[in-house]
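ok so for the tutorial part 2 we go from a plain amino acid sequence to predicted structure tokens. step 1 is just haveing the sequence, like this:
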Amino acid sequence: MSIWVDADACPKVIKEILYRAAKRESIMLYLVANQILSVPPSPFIKTLTVPKGFDVADDEIVNRIVEGDLVITADIPLAADAIAKKANVITPRGEQLTKDSIGGRLTVRDLMDTLRSSGVQTGGPPPLSQKDRQLFAQELDKWFNQRKNA
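step 2 — the prediction. this is what the tokens look like for a chain of 150 residues:
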């Protein structure tokens, strides 16, 4: 099993948590982005640079994941595709997305896109908080524990 990160939009602090976890757990961490990333040297951390373009990084992740992998993303359509391939998904804010929760999230995302395209100012998400970081680390630890107990 591996961890796949939608790295273009992933906050630096979350990447740092993942770097430490990959080394500690000896698990492959792949960061997929459309720009060159600087990562710490480790046999467990790899970057994949994809061409710029709409959903190119997302498509690369979906094409490479296998059942049981972990995907880190805030991109709801990518999360839905990963869940369909029986991967696990955690957002950078520490929310685990599942087959039971993803439908509602897709509906909200589509509604917000409709509002924005009609000119309504919806604003963006709040900055990542300390609580978000803690939730992320807790969900990541849960995933590691489930993997060890499987």
